[in-house]
Amino acid sequence: MKTMIAFWSILKKDILNYYLKPPNISWGIIFPLSWTLMQLMRSEGNLGIVELLPGLMAMSVLFGTTSMLAVTITFERKGRSFDRLLLAPISISILVVAKILGAILFGIINAFIPVIFAAFFIDLSRINWGLTIVAIIFIAVTSALMGLLIAVSAKEVFEAQTLSNFFRFPMLFLCGLFVPLDKLPVVLKPLSFILPLTYGTDILNGSVTGNSVFSAIINFVVMLAFVILLFYLCQRNIKKKWIL
Amino acid sequence: MEIIKVTHLKKTYGDVEAVNNISFSIEQGEIFGFLGPNGAGKTSIINMMIGLSRPTGGHIMIDGIDAIKDIKKVQKIIGIVPDENNLYDEMNGFENLCFCASLYGMRKKEREKRATELLKQFNLLKASRRPFKTYSKGMKRKLTIAAGIIHDPKIIFLDEPTTGIDVESARQIRELILDLKKQGKTIFLTTHYIEEAERICDRIAFIVNGKIVKTGTVNELMENAESEHKINLVLDNNITGSRAELENQFPNYKIKMVGDNSCLIISQERIALSPLLQLLDSKGISVYEAKAIKPSLEDVFVKVTGIEAVQLRIEREKLGT
Question: Are residues B53 and B200 in the same domain?
Answer without folding.
Answer: yes
